[in-house]
Amino acid sequence: MKCFRMRGKKGEQHADPDDPPRKRANKRRGHGTYDNDRPPIVGTVGRESGQVRLRVIHNTDRKTLEAHVHRFTLKETTCYTDEWKSYNHIIREHSTVCHAEHEWARDEDGDGIREVHTNTAEGMWTDVRNYLRPFKGVHKMYLSGYVAMTEFRRNLKRISPAFIAALVTLHSVYT
Q1: Segment 75-111, tens digit of pLDDT
Q2: Which of 14, 98, 115, 116 is the most buried (most CB within 10 A)?
């Protein structure tokens, strides 16, 4: 069997068929859980305030998601989510978009503005993913700390020397 070198492209032709190359983990479809090493992160983001609340959770069941939404939103808040069934019983005004039917935004009240969408939250998840990418994988035991830094970063818009000094001060108080 020949071994081919590809110039300027990723990888090489693998020479031994009995020793296949590694594949990236966690390609399974569906929602992850803490137990299957795919800990979910739940998040809320205010469209007007821009404030973000992110938490690593053990699963995405109804009780957990309802508790998060009720804790981090005001009673008069309108929640916009996808069609995931665990959101069905939140006690807030609630509208959904159905991604399964290729619906990404909807004008619900006919005023020409597509107010029902999850684009604000999707942008937040892009920030989380981009922040975590350079670490090339984070152990689930430490994931909540990295997620907290992402939340602080998004809420503060930038990490300043004053912010770092405040973190160091807090750390010294609690250790």
Answers
A1: 888 888 888 888 888 888 888 888 888 888 888 888 8
A2: 116
Q: What are phi and psi of 96, to 5 degrees?
A: -125, 160
9-48 residues labelled b (16+ CB within 10 A) or e (exposed): eeeeeeeeeeeeeeeeeeeeeeebeeeeeebbbbbbbeee
Structure tokens given for 141: 């035991």
Token pair 């090489």 is at which residue? 12
| Each residue's pLDDT tens digit, 32-91 | 777 777 888 999 988 888 889 999 998 888 898 889 989 998 888 888 888 888 888 888
- What's the DSSP call for residue 7? T
Residues 174, 127: Cα–Cα separation, whole Å: 28
Among 117, 134, 136, 140, CA closest to 41: 140
- How far apart are the C-alpha atoms of 148 and 131, rounded to whole Å? 11
Report how far Cα 135 is from the mean position of its chain's Cα atoms.
Answer: 16
**In this structure, are residues 131 and 138 in contact, taking their beta carbons and an 8 Å threshold?**
no
User: CA 40 to CA 8: how far, in whole Å?
Assistant: 36
Report pLDDT for 14.
59
Q: Are residues 98 and 106 in contact, defined by beta-carbon separation less than 8 angstroms? A: no
